[in-house]
Predict the structure.
Amino acid sequence: MAKSPASKPSKAKAASVSTDAIANRERPATPVPYKATKEELLEFYRQMLLIRRFEEKAGQLYGLGLIGGFCHLYIGQEAVAIGLQSALTPGKDSVITGYRDHGHMLAYGIDPNVIMAELTGRAAGISRGKGGSMHMFSTEHKFYGGHGIVGAQVSLGAGLAFAHKYNNDGGVCLAYFGDGAANQGQVYESFNMAELWKLPIIFVIENNQYAMGTSVNRASAEDQLYRRGESFRIPGLQVDGMDVLAVRGAAEVALDWVRSGKGPILLEMKTYRYRGHSMSDPAKYRSREEVQSVREKSDPIDGCKEDLLAMGVVEDELKAIEKEIRAIVNASAEFAEQAPEPELSELYTDVLVETY
Amino acid sequence: MAIELKMPALSPTMEEGTLAKWLVKEGDSVSSGDILAEIETDKATMEFEAVDEGTVSQILVAEGTDGVKVGTVIALISGDDEAASPAPDAKAEPVATAVVETPKPVAAAPKIVAEPSVPAGTAMATVTVREALRDAMAEEMRADDRIFVMGEEVAEYQGAYKVTQGLLEEFGPRRVIDTPITEYGFAGIGTGAAMGGLRPIVEFMTFNFAMQAIDHIINSAAKTNYMSGGQMRCPIVFRGPNGAAARVGAQHSQNYAPWYASVPGLIVISPYDAADAKGLLKAAIRCEEPVVFLENELMYGRSFEVPAVDDFVLPIGKARIVREGKDVTIVSYSIGVGFALDAAEKLAGEGIDAEVIDLRTIRPLDKATVLTSLAKTNRLVIAEEGWATCSVGSEISAICMEEGFDDLDAPVLRIANEDVPMPYAANLERATLINADKIVGGVRKLFGR
């Protein structure tokens, strides 16, 4: 799969983005792959690799019993969070997602130590060990979670967008949800109000093809999910979510649309998760060959690497990045393992803010 | 024979209304569908149409008359074949048939105790619960631009129960927002807006519909502060009428106080009178927590004294002794307080001196006030307009047993609604709901009577 906008620009990319034109209704521009500088692309590579290695390590720690409960890994989907969030304005725009949230936090540059320590349930964790894998937040980065109920973040995200509009702060909310959540009723209630009130929100469906064990076409009457907003007049774009430049290109179009006051837009990111739904999912609903084929043909990190090599980056530079990332991830695991559990006195803190 | 035109009931809870205007006069002939009069209820002004053809022979209630009971004969119409002269039975006394029977609390029981935080001699104003709630929102909205109100019919319609009357006019559509009928969605949007730094007041037309939204109230709003280690707050008020109204059947008549009160992370408030409605709603809007504020439709139109001060705010989490007594404690909240006060008066006639406690806040529960009263009276009942099973009464009963066991001279009794979905038929509904007599009966048992 060609990734370099320089080598194979239009043809392959045009096929990765499709739109439905409806007469007499304004449509967003057709996205083009983002023309990243070498430095930008190196940074994308670095960030995607950090997510990949972090998640692999989390998987290991889970196997060792250091991480409990549910743990949903983002492996395979890295290009989505990196391509989209790299386009946001820090401190102005907000992000909200579901429970597969580690990657979105890393994409914000949040310290991997406090994320890993949250996974192991330690006092140093970003939620002081009281949230866990699915419930992590960083209001400092305007990252609003980390929500465990499928689809809830869509309404909540519309609320964040409502606040942006109410405060007239110019911010946009990016609300991620999966192909499974795309069938929840509240998603459509939120679509309706978001368009009705022209809320500044980008709805992002991370279509990784499987809602737990149910494939999209077994669960969705309209399986072209980017069309799901059309009856609410929300335009939709289908994007190759395995290509960080295609994702970033779509992000630019979406942000232009929303920031110009045209209301919400829907991006369907066609992506794939290599691991099970959660650590406890044996993933018997798909063949090993299917997973292997995606890894070989469309891996977002491999694709990015090819582009970098084509831009003249040398292997050694990439190896150095790999080494640096491994060190960061190992340190985070070490930190998360060594950090103490929360004091028992923390049990009753933060139930309420005030005392009555 | 003359046809009697009676004061119509124009809402499930209407007991009386104002005959605002006659649009016909004596001698006019009318046909089916003609508008005869405008009738003002506490919620709206409604047009009253003719059903029969004939001539208006006599108008018995002049326009501008207040407090015309539902069922009162307001005019007579003679059929086309009759002379338009006053019918012989026209002098009959107006029939006051109450369509809706709602037991009323004693207006001013002799031993009523004033709110302790209000100094003696404070000027008071007579205000309905409905107005008190509206005033609370308006005052807070004037003080803080982050506060907005959203819900079904809260803006242009002025509120399904007129609680938000006038707010759109004062604050405009940016801050008073009509939503589509999508409780799950707008509860989520409100919650997200609170996470994003605003101070939403989300009105549910009734809490029965909040069942559609309970996921956001509990999973999104109540748990966020804890799950984020205190990082992310959710200051939001979910408010609306709760509990039984009148004759609206099972799906519209339920008390959700025990449901929400079981959830750590929520504040649950359920006021009885107008002063508490105002003072506690203001406190709820200001507080940093998600608050479930449970009103009662049957209380909206009732008037009470409210301190006429600039900024009347009451503390959350404090019960109030509304009537002092020494023989038995009756704990209640919301509409039940009126029944409890009524029961206390009846019991006084039997030589039983009852103390009545209004919990006001259901979570966090003011255990100290309950246990102190129990230590004094040694007998306690809970009067609750709702089911007894897993109720607030069950909770109080457990607290009395666990922490006040040595003070008990008799078992704690729960006086509650019957354990059935609310029936529609008037007699069955009456039999289901608590009332003063049921409370009196329960207390008598404690005294072996």
